[in-house]
Write a structure and sequence with these properties.
This protein has 322 residues and is of the alpha/beta class. 52% of the residues lie in helices and 15% in strands. The longest helix is centred in the C-terminal third of the chain and has 34 residues. It is elongated and about 90 Å long. The structure holds uridine-5'-diphosphate and magnesium ion.
Length: 322
Amino acid sequence: MREDNMLTIIVPCYNEEEVLPETVKELGVVLESMISEEQVSSNSKLLFVDDGSKDKTWELIKKFENQFEYVTGIRFSRNYGHQNALLAGLTTAVDHSDMTITIDADLQDDVNAIPEMVKKYHEGIDVVYGVRNNRDTDTAFKRKTAIAFYSLMSKLGVDMVPNSADYRLLSKRAVEGLLRFDERNLFLRGMVPLVGYPSDKVYYARKERFAGESKYPLKKMIKFAMDGITSFSTVPIKLIMNLGLLVVLIGIGLFIYSIVQKINGNVVSGWTSLITSIWVLGGIQLICLSMIGEYVGKIFTEVKKRPRFTIQEDDYTKEFLK
Ligand code: UDP
Ligand code: MG
């Protein structure tokens, strides 16, 4: 058992008024029992990060703050997205916590895995990944695309723990290591393995969303996947080179073919191959351009060094200053 055991559970919330009461209840039960078993210190916290919700999320957080000693919250000035909300939670909590756990607000991640994660922390592990052992609640489409995504990422050389999302425990030094990554395009599940330190996994069954609907529609999911790929790997740029070589080879083949046709006297035929190659080449050029554009766009957002979030209210830090 480690002496330093102040835990902050970070919960990003975007328009989660429907689930929040249940989330506070379930996380509260887990936290209280861990406090009574002295697994975590009595000043451990549930930190809700309101990511610019438009519904009553912040009012609810305030209400629960008054009701429960361990509930506290920070509020963004606008919606900055899930990854930035997690980052803000970690940045705010790191000075006061010995360990942090990040978990979604919608109770899809089984809260019973939390004590297991804490147990691993006491065994000296710095990073404990929550890994889902089933994907029954996902649609067949989401399952297939997820498998394809993880295998693509591993082919691109990005070390990720398959089927782990943003449900994980980080020790203080792991959080400090993570916060030294200064990038704007956040893809935390790719960044955490890069921090290093001893790590382990805890398996859990992923459930249906308790209430409300997903804040990750297909469009956001595709953007997230693209961010993951282009923030972590330059392999797509190298692929352009290979593609170019292939196109040149095809061009040489076509050239030889047309010479043979000319010798045989079939001169006028050629329109079909011409029009085909124009279209094929045009398409390839567009793909390559968009790939380059993707990286240029990344450089653009990185060099601007815009703030990754703006906190409007911070009850968490206030509490420690009291
Ligand atoms: N979330 C957030 N900001 C956003 C979108 C989502 O803080 O812009 C939070 C959301 O409240 C939830 C978590 O991120 O706690 C995961 O979102 P969701 O459950 O909608 O994603 P899914 O599980 O469908 O992938
Ligand atoms: Mg969810």
